[in-house]
Amino acid sequence: MHHPQITPKFAPEITPSVEELEAQERRLVFRQFTYDDAWALGSLLVELARERQAPVAIDIHRAGQQLFHAALPGSTPDNDAWIARKRRVVERYGASSYLVGARFRAKGTTFEESSRLDPDTYAAHGGSFPVNVENAGVIGAVTVSGLPQLQDHRFVVEALEQFLSE
């Protein structure tokens, strides 16, 4: 199955624009987000990661509660630390961790230089995407860690596109 919007594994990475990243967030909105939705989405991410033998950890949080977590072969405890740091960026900014970093880069600076936030607590690196619910806003985050940051971001976006189209 070929998805034209998904970059194949070893193709050169084309960095998405801030506008493209913002469009993803406007498009990938849930009508609701239940415990069952978290399980189904997390399970889809695990299935996709297994197919690719991706060494990732996967996490879904809603309103401060961890609803899903999985660690696949090759992932390490460090991935859980990255998940927490990326998720905090989504919770604080209401936008994907990759988009937050991209907005700082677009201003000619970096998140680390200009956010005034502790880099041991917050990481504006790709891989955490907001769980945005119609008429409620951002209520949580879906996060992947273990691949290069743009691939982490694209992996979550691909899973959300598939999940929300079903």
From TrEMBL:
InterPro entries: PduO/GlcC-like (IPR005624), PduO/GlcC-like_sf (IPR038084), YBR137W-like (IPR010371)
Family to which this protein belongs: Belongs to the UPF0303 family.
PANTHER family attached to this UniProt entry: PTHR28255, UPF0303 PROTEIN YBR137W (PTHR28255:SF1)
Name assigned to this protein: UPF0303 protein AQI88_20455
Source species of the chain: Streptomyces cellostaticus
